[in-house]
Amino acid sequence: MEKPKTPHILLLPYPATGHINPMLHFAKYLASKSIQITLIVPTQGAKSPALANLPPSISHAVIGDDSDQPTLFNEDKTVDLETHFKRFRSVYIPNLLEFIHRQGWGRNPDETAYPKAMVYDSTMPWLLEVAAEKGMKAAPFFTECCGVNALCYHLNKGNVTFPYEEEFPYRLPSLPALEAGDLLYLPDKVDKRGDIVRYLAAQFELLENADYILVNTFYHLEPEVLDWLEERYPKQRAIGPTFLLPGIDAETAAPQQESYSEWLDSKQPNSVIFVSFGTIVTFGGNQMEEVAHALLMSNRNFLWVVRNTEEVEKLPREIRESEAGLIVNWCHQSRVLSHPAVSCFMTHCGWNSTLEALSIGVPIVAMPRWTDQTANAKFIEDTWRVGVRLKRGWKSDEIFGRERIAKCIEEVVNGVELRKNCLKWKALAVEAVRRGGTSIDSVEEFVRELLLIT
């Protein structure tokens, strides 16, 4: 009798670290359950540190995209995102189909089985049709919080239209009242036409045809909006925080790790402000200078991740030479957040950073820049009540001043209720991925269904 083959699935993240990481954590858990994974990354994401040290059960392939072609601009000198996204799709799909064809999966009993399912980033909804064409189950993976997913739903259905109205708040089912500045957008100088808004709204195109809908959040964090969307999409499941799934080794080596780990170990509990604005967000030199002076005004220790060495050199000399701080260009974020010396987290409010802080129990100084970050900051302050946000109006390019930032730091560091709320969400996040938890049950359901596909 022929021995059953190990189930095999494809995972296709969008080529940005914030999209690769949560899907890779999910992949590592599936691999621990004897699911064979082929991770397919476009060229733009090939150098992500997350791709180092993959387990043997995860195969890794890179396929071409449009990253070797020039950036396109509109007549008003903003980036032509709409054409970029179309070009990315037109290059990516043929390369993916060619890659699948070359593998010869399932043709020989001794070789890797043909993939049963395609788990793909929800911002590439056109992969649903590719999965159907190749006879695979389709499973979009949402890397935003469910509240942001609901905003995308309303934009897709025309319940909210761009450009937004500033005169009154938006009152949408299962969500708090939202101002225009809390919604999804990029600054006018980057995307005046709202291309990014249409792109994010398109995640809900044909979503009802998906076989599974996976969301990197946990039920008790967003029960109302999860329930509301599940009424419309019964196949939706919360499976996060994926970085906390059992057996996940998120270790990524870096030469700076030892230095900042030893530095943190030398500090007293709750004495360090951790500052990191993610892998994509950039603040101008003036804003970075204001952050620097706010940290100095706080009279506290700080660990600041500044990715670009040239940006470090532009910072005021006082901050670069301060004995109270350490500036690095990389760190293992969840490990730093878990360190007892860390008192609070100043962040751009990307969903991975927000979810890590919530799940580890660290209060937040929210300094959003664009897209989903403004909505996340709203939820951080008013829904989950774990931080204080620096808020600007829609279309505003206001620079947050040092006094204002320093005041927010003090509010967060001394916020007794904020810390109580942080501990509550931490406990619920851990509960979600333990045996019998809502997220781990959803992941195990997905695994069982993979095993049943013939």
From TrEMBL:
SUPFAM superfamilies, per the entry: UDP-Glycosyltransferase/glycogen phosphorylase
Any Pfam family matching the protein: UDPGT
Catalysed reactions listed for this entry: an anthocyanidin 3-O-beta-D-glucoside + UDP-alpha-D-glucose = an anthocyanidin 3,5-di-O-beta-D-glucoside + UDP + 2 H(+)
Domain of life assignment: Eukaryota
Stored Gene3D superfamilies: Glycogen Phosphorylase B
InterPro entries, alphabetized: UDP_glucos_trans, UDP_glycos_trans_CS
GO MF annotations, alphabetized: quercetin 3-O-glucosyltransferase activity; quercetin 7-O-glucosyltransferase activity; UDP-D-glucose:delphinidin 3-O-glucosyl-5-O-caffeoylglucoside -O-beta-D-glucosyltransferase activity
CDD domains (alphabetical): GT1_Gtf-like
Keywords for the protein's UniProt record, in alphabetical order: Glycosyltransferase, Signal, Transferase
Pathway: Pigment biosynthesis; anthocyanin biosynthesis
This enzyme's EC code(s): 2.4.1.-
UniProt key word Metal-binding: no
Record family assignment: Belongs to the UDP-glycosyltransferase family.
Function in brief: Catalyzes the glucosylation at the O-5 position of anthocyanidin 3-glucosides to form anthocyanidin 3,5-di-O-glucosides using UDP-glucose as sugar donor. Anthocyanidin 3,5-di-O-glucosides are molecules that are responsible for pigmentation. Also acts on anthocyanidin 3-O-(6-O-malonylglucoside). Much less active with hydroxycinnamoylglucose derivatives. No activity in the absence of the 3-O-glucoside group.
PANTHER family: GLUCOSYL/GLUCURONOSYL TRANSFERASES, UDP-GLYCOSYLTRANSFERASE 74E1-RELATED
Protein's name in the database: Glycosyltransferase
